[in-house]
Amino acid sequence: MQITITDVRKRYGDVVALDGPSVTIPSGSTFGVLGTNGAGKTTLFELLVGHDRPDEGRIEVGGLDVQQAGHRVRERVAFLPEHAGFPPSMTGREVLDVHARIRGLEARTRRIDDVLETVGLGDAADRPVEGYSNGMGRRLGLAATLLPEPPVLVLDEPTAGLDPRGVTAFHEIIERIGRETDATVVLSSHVLGEVERLCDEVAILQDGQLRAVGDVDELRADAGDGVTVSLQPAGDPGCESRDRLFEAVQDWGDVADTGDAIEVVCDREIAFERLSTLESDLVERFEVREPGLEAAFHEALADADADQKASTEVTAP
Predict the structure, then answer these.
(1) Strand 262-267 to strand 254-257: parallel, antiparallel, or no bridges (unpaired)?
(2) What's the rounded Cα separation, in Å, for the pair 74 and 69?
(3) How far apart are CA 61 and CA 78, in angstroms?
(4) Which of 175, 169, 181 lies closest to 133 in space, CA to CA?
(5) 189: β partners
(6) How far apart are CA 59 and CA 99, in angstroms?
(7) Are 225 and 239 in contact (CB under 8 A)?
(8) pLDDT digits over 52-95, tens only?
(9) pLDDT (tens digit, 9 = 90+) per residue, 257-298?
(10) Separation between Cα atoms, residue 280 and residue 303, nearest integer Å
(11) What is the chain's percent helix, strand, coil content, to nearest 5?
């Protein structure tokens, strides 16, 4: 189900939370909204699910205006907020039964069992929620959003506060949803690798403004032709060949000795041209890493800082 966000603005007092982002989220995609804390991600989600109203602009879900058809939109959209709490004395199954009753779902028992298995809580279904770990609580929240089989899932910082195992488990669930259903999944995060792994397309927000949007490969390409060359020096740490290698790559680009390796950030063509001429006795092995989403993210933030500086200079007395 396609989502269309058009020139949306939202202000809280003197604070501009959203300043005109426009983006179309394709039906059936997993779409990431990336940004630092305070970038406007949660505000955008609150407007998208109808918990608040924009001051200006329009949001449509499957062709329905969220402001004009809020009830019908909420039937199509399931929302997992960043902080979702449940009565501690209730079991996971009881929590989902309450949510199923609210949604008016028939054949509740079977659907609840299916969803609990999907999120990996089948064995913990009849345990009180107060005994759940943080990761289990997040998965129970996801189970509640999956109950009505919604065409749109909106997940606000779904892995915030989880340990590595919890993050991995959550990622596997989201990937399975993407493979096995037609649901449109919209998630926010400030973790670059998470968005890069899970999402087909991504939007970068900063200071309430849309700074970049596109699929991950497009954003990588737009970030430039730079690559990172990681060179493992031959010989032992502190040996002469390491110093010689460090000197040999000084004119390639930005050079750093990480302790484990010597890394150079440089133009792609320079990297492969110079590698072919490097003395073989200086390097035990090397790796060339293409730019990731991090490059696009930091470029977008740099553009935002430059715009802010220019605006300040123009308006200064």
Answers:
(1) antiparallel
(2) 9
(3) 12
(4) 169
(5) 34
(6) 26
(7) no
(8) 999 999 999 999 999 999 889 988 999 999 888 899 999 999 99
(9) 877 789 888 887 888 889 988 887 888 888 887 766 766 776
(10) 40
(11) 40, 25, 30
Please say if the pLDDT value at position 311 is more than 60.
Answer: no
For 56-69, give one letter per residue: b (16+ CB within 10 A) or e: ebebbbbebebeeb
Q: Model-level pTM?
A: 0.74
* Residues sharing a CB contact under 8 Å with residue 205, sequence separation 6 or more, in sequence order: 21, 33, 34, 35, 39, 40, 41, 44, 211
Identity of the amino acid at 260: D
Round to whole Å and give the CA distance between 214 and 77: 23
Beta strand extents in the chain (DSSP E only): 3-12, 15-19, 23-25, 30-34, 56-61, 64-65, 77-80, 152-156, 184-189, 201-206, 209-215, 226-233, 254-257, 262-267, 283-289
- For residue 314, pLDDT over 60 is answered with no
> Around 119, how many Cα atoms within 13 Å sit in the side-chain half-sphere?
25
The rounded distance, in Å, linking the Cα atoms of 128 and 106 is 24
Q: Quick check: 105 and 148 in contact, CB under 8 A?
A: yes
CB neighbours of residue 315 within 10 Å? 7
Select from 100, 149, 91, 101 the least CA-distant residue to 121.
91
Residue type for 25, please? I
